Amino acid sequence: MNITDLNIPIICYVSFLLIVWFESDIVTTFAKLTKTSSFLKIDEFNKYKSDHDAMANYPNFLYENYPGYLTKLLSCPICLCFWSTLVSSSTLVYLVKYNLSLLILIFPINYVCSLFIYLIIRRLL
């Protein structure tokens, strides 16, 4: 099995993660289904949308109302893509038992491709 056989799905997975997180209302839907809307501050988010910006998304709401490192990480597509690509590429290298130096080669390719695909799809939406 070649490393690229597993590398392309990782690129698609990270792009999918970014699209779902930043371009959909998955958090509000998930909170309604699992009854965690008080924990995830969904009522406060809906009030924020009606008062400030009707097109606001949940990651930006988190960063504006609860500033911190984690909320900055979750509200920045470049940051979230970097860390999710790093984790997924490291996991791939570890599970396939390749040399760790391969991570240095595949990480930049995965990162740039994932971010590029996300930005293209975001532009099309």
Your description of this structure?
There is one protein chain. By secondary structure, this protein is an all-alpha fold. It has one domain. Helices cover 79% and strands 0% of the residues. The mean pLDDT is 90.
Topology summary:
Layout: H1 3-23, H2 26-34, H3 42-51, H4 58-65, H5 69-75, H6 77-96, H7 101-124
Helix pairs in contact: 1-6, 1-7, 4-5, 6-7
Which strand-content bin applies to the residues?
under 5%
* Low-confidence runs: none
The overall pLDDT average reads 90
For the CA atoms, what is the radius of gyration? 17 Å
* H/I helix tally: 7
Order of SSEs: HHHHHHH
What structural class is derived from the secondary structure elements?
mainly alpha
- The total count of strands amounts to 0
Largest pleated sheet = none
Estimated helix fraction? over 70%
Distance between the termini: 35 Å
Shape: elongated
Keywords:
single chain, 125 residues, mainly alpha, elongated
Structure, briefly:
The protein has 125 residues and is mainly α. The chain has one domain.
